[in-house]
Amino acid sequence: MAEEAPEPPIPLGLRLGVALFSLALTLGVAEGLIRWADGGALPHLRLFTQVDGAITLEADAAATLRRADGGTFTVATDAQGLRVGAGPPLGPGAPLVVGDSQVLGMGVSAEEAFPARLGAHNAGVPGHGLTDALALAQALLASLQPRALVVVVNQANDWEDGTTPLTDRMAVRGGWLIDRQRAEGPMGRLFWGSPLSRSHLLYLTSLLLRGPAPASGPPAWMADPAGQQAQSASLAAAIREFAAAHPALPLTVAFLPVDVAAQAARAETSPFGTAAQAASPPPWADRQLHDQLAAALGSALPLVDLTPALRADPALFLEADYHLSAAGHAAVAEALAAPLGGP
Known about the structure:
alpha/beta; Rossmann fold; 15 helices; 12 strands
């Protein structure tokens, strides 16, 4: 009986091709399933750009984000990188509000954020400190010609960031805003700065590999509020300098308290809760930062304290997040309407 001829070996190139095709198909299916499961939303914003030494939001762009409670919201920008909603564009003369993610309205729709409720341009940029906010206001004055400016000083961030520009603290890679140390490392250049970081599968995998943030104690402004006199004076000086350069522009300064400074009940649900419970005095019983800033600003620039407007209900802030809820934005808008002269 004749022996059967052995089957010809499968060419190596074909085997590699089949393996790569299978891998690509598997990853593609996994990517599609994850995007379907998360509704196309990610937990962080990828709309940042760095131009002429300033970090702002990309123009004419949009991104869908997921809140800690599982809900989603969209951030869309206009030709100047300002957050906009579905309503008609604002014309010249509308007020301008500058600040960080609280002004932008992280967690709520553009229409729910307090700048829109005031009929104002929303120039909030996550990560912005006071210096960045004032620089953006300066850049927008000629084109927007606002009749008034609102500068929001956020207790949660501005005493920590001080007057250090965002570009000294963070960098943009692939539209993401990441700390400078990570941005300058291999992952910052090879992953975050590449189209691969747009993959929901790879992005979420990177978060899992990174693990939870290391535990830390209360921030300095919470642990030692009495020691923040110099920082408060620095913040006030930057605002006074801007106001002096634009004497014809009405300027409102608003103090936005962190959630645990507005109400003790937030210590149960706030990301700042553990630190707040360890702090002495506890932030809900302490007014030193507000009082320092008010004294440093002087009577020529009165400070609108938003704390009373945010004391009533824990639901004025998002669950497991210190950002304002839609109800919180409504309360802030009501508190600012009179100083701003109404929408």
